[in-house]
Amino acid sequence: MTDLSRIRNFSIVAHIDHGKSTLADRLIQETNTVATRDMKEQMLDAMDIERERGITIKANTVRIDWTAADGHDYVLNLIDTPGHVDFAYEVSRSMRAVEGSLLVVDSTQGVEAQTLANVYQAIDADHEIVPVLNKIDLPASEPDRVAEQIEDVIGLDASGALLVSAKTGQGIKETLQAIVDHLPPPKGDRDAPLKAMLVDSWYDSYLGVIVLVRIIDGVLRKGDRVRMMQSGSLHHVDRIGVFRPAMTQAEELGPGEIGFLTASIKQVRDTRVGDTITHEKGGADKPLPGFKPSQPVVFCGLFPVDSAEFEDLRDAIEKLALNDASFSHEVESSAALGFGFRCGFLGLLHLEVIRDRIEREYDIDLITTAPSVVYHVHMRDGEVRELHNPADMPDLTHVDHIEEPRIKATILVPDDYLGDVLKLCQDRRGIQMDLTYAGPRAMVVYDLPLNEVVFDFYDRLKSVTKGYASFDYQMTGYREDSLQKMQILVNEEPVDALSVMVHRDRAEARGRAMVEKLKELIPRHMFKIPIQAAVGGRVVARETLSAMRKDVTAKCYGGDMTRKKKLLEKQKAGKKKMRQFGKVEIPQSAFISALKMDS
């Protein structure tokens, strides 16, 4: 049993690539939590995709034992959180489970957009925050300037900021001491009824669902009967323990401790993140305040390339949804692509990660339709419908107006590239709200339509600023605009998988780009194929794919011209008849390339 005053629970928050996971590695190594031979880079990033992309996707936890300068033994529970905007949901719930944060800032780059977003979440959760300036071993490091920037931009006192190099291990002991000295111990009552917060859950094929819990009050022991307060389900606890990063069994978990439990739960669905766990008998009366459920902002269809794999895809998506509370899905069918799922994500990186995980972990080839956002369609009779898929757009005669989601985007960019960034935002129908300076960099705040950001805004932003800009956004609400559904017709038949919502001023340019691309992608047939982009009843762009022809006049040498004409007319009539009854085969690869379209 650990004394409450000797426990410290903390998370590490930072912008992408400022060195969170490397710092976590050093803390684990310095305290000999893991034997030297088992140590590897990014110890807590377990998924292949995390290691490959060098990003943290799931918040991971580890328990570290350390003897401080006063000779006492302390238990440090660390939660390593993601830095990317799409995984802010993971960050927000990890924050609720701990009392303090290490704010890691790269001393060569300074405060970035995500640094701000994550710090504000920590401040909202009433955290004590210790600033850490990382990468001081680099020649470009400017700790004094960055400390000043932390004070100016965030308003935190950075006079005692720790100078650390997570790569070389400099300043790691001081960091551990600062955690003990500056972060508050958890509060909790051992004799009160059990209250445990469900922080995360994931599926293990041997143990069933593993639940990550933070004990607030009371004690959880092996063999207890527990109740989930939201779902009301009852479970018998098989094993409990802590992560050192490997799972280590324990007899009990007391107040302030972070650990796991398994209770042969089959469905991760029964373990809702943010739920409160209490004893079946004599449990707590009211649950802990939950977190607000995440709202997916980007939707797209996932279809198996081989339609026989639909059931496998269902299985894969359900398993991932267990692990990721912010991912939603429902079955949909499409004339072009067969059966699949309409899935909701928190952003484009989230979409890519889920898609890669399905392809890699479950070995299913996928087609992903163009990402779209949720529009609010106001009907003339006062009804408001949510439009997830442009193909489901109701008849325009019944529609009064359409509203699209808007976001508030914060972009930090070096002064040299400011003009390009402003032009990019203006091109995307943005409205400038603010422009201030944080040191040598400009901080631009724009009101942008989410629909324009979803496609490739992030990539364009990185390319016009040579990778120096950082970008963060939050949803602000819906606003009316003149939006239209654009359909693509191939051989005069609409292809529903390629329908998109466009702004009236953009329809022509977008349509032209789409039909030109399809002209290259669709293979030639025996008859000519018109490819059109239409808004309502008006065709805004057209390309014609010419037919493959056999030279029917090759055998005809000399003689009268009418003989050649007769053969050509006969061929022409045949082609016309073919076009009437012929079906255009659009290969899967053409769909995929057309949907990856760079607007």
Give the topology, please:
Blueprint: E1 7-14, H1 20-30, H2 48-53, E2 60-67, E3 73-80, H3 88-96, E4 100-106, H4 113-124, E5 128-134, H5 143-154, E6 162-163, H6 172-182, E7 195-204, E8 208-217, E9 220-221, E10 225-228, E11 234-236, E12 239-244, E13 246-250, E14 252-253, E15 258-262, E16 276-279, E17 298-304, H7 310-323, E18 328-334, E19 338-345, H8 348-361, E20 366-368, E21 372-373, E22 375-379, E23 384-387, E24 399-414, H9 418-427, E25 431-438, E26 441-449, H10 450-464, E27 470-480, E28 483-490, E29 493-494, E30 500-503, H11 507-521, E31 529-535, E32 538-545, H12 561-581, H13 588-595
Parallel strand pairs: 1-3, 1-4, 4-5, 5-6
Antiparallel strand pairs: 2-3, 7-8, 7-16, 8-15, 9-14, 10-11, 10-16, 12-13, 12-15, 17-19, 17-20, 17-21, 18-19, 22-23, 22-24, 24-26, 24-27, 25-26, 28-29, 28-30, 28-31, 31-32
Helix pairs in contact: 11-13
